[in-house]
Amino acid sequence: MPNTEQLPGEVTALRDGDPLDLFNKWFDEARSVEPNDPNAMALATATPDGWPSVRMVLLKEHGPDGFVFYTNAESRKGGEIAENPQGALLFHWKSLRRQIRIEGALQEVSEAEADAYFHSRPRVSQIGSAASDQSRPLPQRQTYLNRVEDLAVRFPEGDIPRPEHWTGFRLVPHAIEFWLDRPNRLHDRRLFKRVGTGAWSSTLLYP
User: Fold this and answer.
1) Closest among 83, 76, 81 to 48, alpha carbons compared
2) Which H or E element spans position 129?
3) Which pLDDT tens digit goes with each residue over 147-162?
4) What is the DSSP letter of 77?
5) Which three-class secondary structure state does DSSP give residue 70?
6) Are 105 and 172 spatial neighbours (Cβ–Cβ below 8 Å)?
7) Taking the model in full, what pTM does it have?
8) Is 185 among the residues known to form the active site?
9) Is the Cβ–Cβ distance between 34 and 93 less than 8 Å?
10) Which domains does the chain have, with CATH numbers?
11) Active-site residue, selected from the candidate residues 136, 162, 185, 190
12) Distance between CA 111 and CA 109 in Å, rounded?
């Protein structure tokens, strides 16, 4: 018989319950052990005719309403979200041998939320974002650096005005899947699906 003993420090199995509570538990543990960007997540979007794209972004807020990231709405992902406001997230914490997949609808955050987060960023990050035509062709890097310098001169002190196209999106989950590494690839998976306001169903999945 294969060795199916649990890994040190792991729960005995993925159980039914509230997936958002379980996300919080795993995320807190990741922040204590992951050396770099425990809030990094892959974001997948697609065009209306089904061409997918994926990139890493950073989770900035999360709660019962969903999972928030910020970006340039005129970037490739911004354009795809505008035309097809559905997405998927993937967290992979290698040190914990865990991953979480989340799928749902994407909603733009309010102007007040976008303003608050933009101005909470370091000044150099505000300048870098305001100077960037994200995802568009760049003739040479110096062109971008010149724009950064020009903005720093125009706004020598205080916050940089938030560009209208710089905003955030909240993924409102309708499905959340937890994956837990087990010895001999006998992994543990549980899928939660939203069945009503604040209500979830769940089932184990074959690995």
Assistant:
1) 83
2) helix 123-131
3) 999 989 999 888 889 9
4) H
5) strand
6) yes
7) 0.88
8) yes
9) yes
10) 19-118+166-205 (2.30.110.10), 120-161 (no CATH)
11) 185
12) 7
Phi, psi for residue 52 in degrees, rounded to 5? -90, 160
The pair phi, psi for residue 177, each rounded to 5°, is -120, 130
Q: How many residues does the chain have?
A: 207
Separation CA 121–CA 126 (nearest Å): 6
- Residue 13 CB neighbour total at 10 angstroms: 11
Single-letter code of the amino acid located at 158: G
Decide if 178 contacts 14 (C-beta within 8 A): yes
Listed as ranges, residues in the chain with pLDDT below 50 are 1-11
In one-letter notation, the amino acid at residue 60 is K
How far is C-alpha 133 from the geometric centre of its chain's CA atoms? Answer: 21
Task: For residue 171, give both structure tokens.
Answer: 């993924």
User: What span, in angstroms and rounded, lies between the C-alpha atoms of 3 and 19?
Assistant: 28
